[in-house]
Design goal:
93 residues; two-stranded antiparallel sheet
Length: 93
């Protein structure tokens, strides 16, 4: 008898909903201190997950939830860059 394959679950830091890891977008603070959007989910560094909805990204960036989860302070330039990367990521879907 075959068991169903395990699907890792993660929680969105903005809306606090638990979803499959593949349904969320991971943002990573690399060991060098840069922030990147990680489409593979395997990049090295401290990560936080957000839904693919614009409302979750707005809440995560405006209320400093992303900064708190990644233990970093975000500058205005970094927020703008993350929003640009988000738009590129959402267009892929």
């Amino acid at each position: 008898m075959l068991r169903p394959k395990h699907k890792p679950q993660r929680t969105c830091i903005a809306c606090r909903e638990t979803k499959d890891k593949r349904d969320l977008i991971r943002v990573v603070r690399t060991p060098a201190g840069t922030l990147i959007v990680d489409p593979t989910g395997k990049a090295n560094g401290r990560g936080a997950y957000l839904c693919r909805q614009a409302s979750c990204w707005e809440k995560g960036l405006s209320k400093q939830r992303l900064a708190q989860a990644l233990k970093v302070t975000l500058s205005a330039e970094e927020v703008a860059e993350l929003q640009a990367q988000l738009q590129a990521e959402l267009l892929k879907v």
